[in-house]
What does this fold into?
Amino acid sequence: MRSVRDDQLVRPTLEDEVAAAGSELIGGPVGRRALLGVSWWTPVRVIALVAVGMFALGMVQKLPCYDHGWFFGATTQYTHACYSDIPHLYSGRGFDQGLIPYFDRIPDSVSGGMDYLEYPVLTGLFMEIAALFTPGGGTIQHREQVYWFVNAGMLLVCTAVIAVCVARTHRRRPWDALLMALAPAFALTATINWDLLAVALTAAAMLMWSRGRGVVAGVLIGLAAAAKLYPVLLLGPLLVLCVRAGRLRAFLGCAGAAVGAWLAVNLPVMFTAGFHIRPGWAKFYTFSQDRPVDFGSVWLFISQRTGNPLDDANVYATLLMVLGCAAIAALGLAAPRRPRFAQLAFLVVALFILVNKVYSPQYVLWLVPLAALARPKWRDFLVWQGCEVLYFLGIWFYLAYTGSGDKHQGLPPEGYQLAILAHLLGTLYLCALVVRDILTPERDVVRRDGSDDPSGGVLDGAPDIWVVGPARRARQAAPSEGTRVQWGTGSRAV
It folds into this structure.
């Protein structure tokens, strides 16, 4: 493949004042004669190595938990903010006993009332593979430590995949992926759970879509949805944008491949003899429906402030999700210029997290790659990350407070509620800026060089076919075919 010279790439240090100031730590903004694009140190390789390095720092941050923090109900895992679900669920879901997820019922003596694994099938397979690589023998504490390390190694591979995919999605803007690679909340939450598997598959799907390979993107979205529910939401923005651009066939190919891939993974586990739904397979969906309001959500904030348990939170969340999706669809069809795929994808996933009954610390992993593609501005990204780091510390100190008995060492409920409010407002802040970029496309930093939608694949540069509201009026007033319209500092053919 032909190498791309650095002078053909967008350099954030020349267009972003925060990136330029930060670059002073390594010698200042890159010069015009730099040859990073043709040396071994290509942007993609640099970003992948930075992401791996930050992941390693996140592992070091878990150091206080290695010896005893995860065991015996110690509050060390909270006071040192090094909690992880991974070692707890090794024995808590029967992996230490060789139980097969979805097929074998978990004994009540170890599960705490969870009769089957409460994760989607592909995540369950990921967990099972890690268990197979965890050697037997020794104490259960030692095996849980090894299980965490095995999972960390597999999640490290996922991190490298995410970094490479995000860096290559925008051909001329690989350096935007440094936002993802250097995100502090990403490093801190990477090994709390298994979310990075779905994030990696989603990032790969967006890369394939940007290259015009819609069917492959659909397969990856289907596999990602078999690991976590949220990736299926990307089909909504694709539908809206493909309708506006008159590329419905491309959407149908992608959506059909997604459904086929999801079924290929789930069907072998879904049914028992006689084609009854296997209760182990359905556990993820019933658990998500039945769980009460939980940590980090706006519903927990309201519940704690009012004393109301909010038993109808499912109804409220569903209603807000439907209304929010309708608003995003209207935005996509009525905006003066067709939004970029990454922008709508970020908005719909952020909406899902904001209205969900739980907003776990690791959910920020879903948003970081999308945010880097949707709005690559360092100042606003770091403001949001600061809010997420604040919440990361807040939830563990709150759990230390509630788990320390009468000592109450940690963050009281009032402080935790402020932490919830901070990370909700931080996410809303970034959403508001993305919406502003959509409504005033000249503000969109990605389009300043005349680009249309670098992550849009078949949508990139496509004319609008079906639009409503202000977009329809703007289209009717547009110049004739072949003229050029100025957008920001660049221009494009209409």
Notes: Strands lie at 484-487, 490-493. Residues 321 and 352 are 7 Å apart (CA to CA).
